[in-house]
Amino acid sequence: MKGFVVWITGLPGSGKRALARALAQQLQQRGRQVEVIDSGALRDTPLASSLGFSREERVQNCLRHAFAAKLLANNGVVAIVSAVSPYRETRDTIRSQVGAFAEVAVTTPKETCIDRDTRGVWAAALRGEIRNFTGVDDPYEAPLSPEFAIDLSHLDEHSAARALTAELSRLELLTGATAPGLDNDPLARELEDAGFMS
Asked: What does pTM read for this prediction?
């Protein structure tokens, strides 16, 4: 099966990470190999810990995500990237480089993102304590023609992931992806029972 990249973009706190994880579960149930590239988690690793939040560093951060995602997709994996990735030009560049690609716009309104902010980063940015914060003093350029757009202010991530999975099927990115036939495969059942298959 061919790999592809799902790039989930949106404001901080819009629900990107939850959607990415729920989508990964959906696709794994269809027998696909999946990896989630979480931008927030990656900033705590050597891959991105040296980068700040200037425009140039944000672009470089996204390009590093894209490089990893392309490697995964080239090896049959569905790479799901969850990243604010605020600049349209950068996302368009990535689309042109990675091959099979679906851009997902999480359009949860800014007010909802602020209300749901459990870490206090939106509040700190609005007080001027955090600089270059997307949606406050740094722009967010929403996608113009994403493959899929979803507002998570009134929809849970699992329902959204099911709708997104259906759209990926319609786009023929999931061709050949079927759930494993565990009932007819004793070895597969054994492996699943032992925790080696998800």
From this structure: 0.84
